[in-house]
Design a protein that fits this description.
Elements lengths: L9 H11 L29 E10 L5 E7 L10 E2 L2 E3 L7 H13 L6 E6 L3 E2 L4 E10 L12 E8 H4 L6 E7 L2 E7 L9 H14 L2
Parallel strand pairs: 1-7
Antiparallel strand pairs: 1-2, 1-4, 2-3, 2-8, 5-7, 6-7, 9-10
C-alpha cells in the first residue's frame, strides 16, 4: 500500500496532473508559437506541419502505469517502435482528444467509455512533419484490449513511477541523412522506448514534476 503522500498514489497523482496539465482546448488546428520539445529540429522556411494527436493512457491502478504499444514490423513508418496510440486529426474529429481516443479504439480496441481525458501537453513538432498534441487520460484498469494486427503487435504497461524518474531518462544519438540527432531513450525490460515517444514522456515529467 502506497503512503498517503506518495505522488504516484492515484488519489494524489490524478488531481495533481489536472492542475499542472494544459486544458483540453477545442479544435485540432495548429497554433503558432507553442513549445517545441525537440529543440534540435528547426522547421525550414514554408514548413507546414500536419496536426496529429496521441493518447497518453495512465491506467488507474494502485500503482499507475502508462499503457504503450509496439507497432507492427510491416508498417511503412516507425515499424517495430514503441509508441502511444495516435495518428492524424481528421476533419470529423471534434478536437485532439477525440482524435486520440478514436485512434486508441482503432489500434488497440480501448473502449472510449473507459477513457477520461484530463489535460494535454504542449505540442511536439516532429521532424516527420507532424504537430502532435499529447492528450493525457485516466484509463479504467478493467479495460479489455483487442489489438489491430495491421498496426500493433503488442500492448504493455510500464510503471508510471519508472518513467517519471529522470534517472531513467538517457540521451542517445543517431545519424540521419548525414546529420547527428540527439533524443531521449528510456529502456524498460526488453522494450526500447526512444525518439518521439520518449520525448513526449520527458515532456510529461517536466510538466508534472520538474
Amino acid at each position: 500500500m502506497r503512503p498517503e503522500s506518495d505522488p504516484f498514489r492515484p488519489s494524489v497523482f490524478f488531481p495533481h496532473a489536472r492542475l499542472r496539465l494544459a486544458p483540453l482546448a477545442p479544435g485540432g488546428g495548429i497554433v503558432e508559437g507553442e513549445t517545441v520539445l525537440n529543440p534540435e529540429f528547426h522547421p525550414p522556411a514554408g514548413f507546414k506541419a500536419r496536426p496529429a494527436a496521441v493518447l497518453i493512457p495512465v491506467v488507474g491502478r494502485d500503482e499507475p502505469t502508462l499503457l504503450m504499444t509496439r507497432r507492427t514490423a510491416t508498417l511503412r513508418q516507425h515499424a517495430g517502435q514503441i509508441s502511444f496510440p495516435g495518428g492524424s486529426i481528421d476533419p470529423e474529429d471534434a478536437d485532439a482528444a477525440a482524435a486520440a481516443i478514436r485512434e486508441a479504439q482503432e489500434e488497440i480496441g480501448l473502449d472510449p467509455a473507459l477513457v477520461e481525458p484530463i489535460g494535454r501537453l504542449d505540442p511536439y513538432i516532429a521532424g516527420t512533419g507532424f504537430h502532435i498534441t499529447p492528450v493525457v487520460a485516466r484509463v479504467d484498469p478493467r479495460h479489455h484490449l483487442v489489438l489491430n494486427p495491421h498496426e500493433v503487435d503488442l500492448a504493455f504497461e510500464v510503471p508510471l513511477a519508472f518513467l517519471m524518474s529522470p534517472r531513467n531518462h538517457h540521451i542517445g544519438s543517431r545519424e540521419f541523412d548525414g546529420v547527428r540527432h540527439s533524443f531521449y531513450e528510456m529502456p524498460y525490460d526488453e522494450h526500447y522506448i526512444w525518439g518521439i515517444t520518449a520525448g513526449i514522456i520527458r515532456g510529461l515529467y517536466e510538466r508534472l514534476f520538474a
